[in-house]
Amino acid sequence: xxxxxxxxxxxxDGLDAIxxxxxxxxxxxxxxxxxxxxAAKRQPTDHVDRxxxxxxxxxxxxxTDLDQAFAIEAAGADLLxxxxxxxxxxxxxxxxxxxxxxxxxGETLYLPDRxxxxxxPILAEGAASLLPDGPRPAIVFTVRIDPSGAVALDGVxxxxxxxxxxxxYATAIDADLPAGFADLATRIQRDERxxxxxxxxxxxxxxxxxxxxxxxRFRPRLVAEDRNAALSLATNMAVGQALLAHHxxxxxxxxxxxxAAKLRLRNTAKAFALAWPxxxxxxxxxxxxxxxxxxxxxxMLAVRRAGHGASYAPWHDGETPxxxxxxxxxxxxxxxxxxxxDRYVIRAAVAVANGQPVPAVVxxxxxxxxxxxxxxxxxxxxxxxxxxDLAEAIMLRSRVGxxxxxxxxxxxxxxxxxxxxxxxxxxxxxxxxxxxDALIVRLAAIDMQRRTIxxxxxx
Length: 459
Fold this sequence. Notes:
Layout: H1 12-21, H2 30-39, E1 48-49, E2 55-59, E3 68-75, E4 78-86, H3 97-105, E5 109-110, E6 115-116, H4 121-127, E7 136-145, E8 151-161, E9 163-168, H5 181-195, E10 204-210, E11 213-219, H6 223-245, E12 250-253, H7 259-271, H8 282-286, H9 294-306, E13 311-314, H10 340-353, H11 360-396, E14 403-412, E15 415-420, E16 426-429, E17 438-447, E18 452-457
Parallel strand pairs: 1-8, 2-9
Antiparallel strand pairs: 3-4, 4-7, 5-6, 7-8, 10-11, 12-13, 14-15, 14-17, 15-16, 17-18
Helix pairs in contact: 1-11, 5-6, 7-9, 10-11
C-alpha cells in the first residue's frame, strides 16, 4: 500500500475524504518546523570519519527519505555488512518540540498521492536523509554473516558517511552494487529456510487504467527489493540478539497463525486453484509461489493477514521475544525516519555495543512505545484498508449486476467471508455455505461514499 499508484488521479476525491476521516496530519505546526530548521544546521561532532567507505543507497527511485546506506566487505569466508542508518537522534532532542510531535504521530502515514511524515521534510528528506549530496551523520552497524547465513553484531558506531550513489530498484544493475550483495542475500535466505521462517513479501497493489477502465493489480517485486530486504533483516536480527543478551530492548513479536487461520489459508489457496499438498508446511509452500502470478500474489497477501498481527514488546526477565514469521528474535532498528521506535532501539544498540549503560530515557521509552506504536499501526492499517476499499469500489463500479466465481474462506455470525477467484478482493456474503465451498456471487451494489461493495449469492 505504501506505493499504490494512481497515475490518472482516479482516487483523488476519495483520498481527501479518507484523510479527513482518519485525521491525517497536513504539515507540521510552525514551532516544529522552526525547531527542525535549527536542528538541520547541526554539524556532527561525535562521529568517526567513514567517508572513505563506499556506501550506496537502494530504494524506490522517487524516495528522498533515505534511512539506510550499505557497504559490504569480505572477511575470510564471512561477509561484513556495514549498514549505515540515519542518525535521527542527532537532530531530535528528548522531549523537545520535534520529539513530542513524533510521539503523537508514531510513524509515517502513507497514502497513494502523498504521505504524512514522522519528521519534517527538512530533516527526513534533507539533513538526516542519507542522500549522496554530502556527508551525513549515521549509525553504522557492522554485521557479520557467515556462510550458513547466521548473523552476529560485530560493532556499532556513530560515523560520518558519504553515499556514493542513490540507486533505484528498477534500474540498479549488479555492477552498481557492492560486491557480495547477491551472496549476502542468498545466505540470509538460506538461513530463513533452515529456521522455517514463513515471512513473505508480497507485491504491492496498484491501480492502473486498462482500455479506459480501472484495474487493481499487483506490482511484481523486483529481485533488488528482496535482496535489499535481506540486509535489513540481517541487521535487525543481529540487533535483537545483542539487546536480548544484555537484558534490554524493544522487540517486534508475532504469534504464528492459529488452526482457524491456517484453514482459511487452505480455502484461499483453493479459491486461487493453488495446489498446496496437505502435508506441506505453510513456510515451504509460500517459497514455491511466483509473486509475478496474480493469484499467488493474492495468496501471499492473505498469508500476511493470517496471523494476529505483529506488535512490540519490551524486554522482560524470563521471556524470549519471538517473531513467528521471521522465526527469530527480532528488533526493528533500520527505519528511524519512518518509525518512532527505531530511534530508541538504535540508541540502546549503540550503548550495549560500546559497553555503556542504556540511557534511562531509552529504557523508559521501551515501556511506553508499544501502546503508541500499536495506535499508529492501527491507524495506518485502517487507512490502508480504506484505500483498498476505495480502489475496489472504483474498479468494480461498472460491474454491478455481474457474476463472479468465489470460494468461502471462513464463516462467523455475520455470514461468510469470500475470496473472489479472479480478483484480489475479499468480501462478505449472507450464506450458510461452509469454508471451502465454491460459489457464484452477483455484485448487487456499490456505495462509493462508504467504500463498500455488496455481493449476493447466485448459486
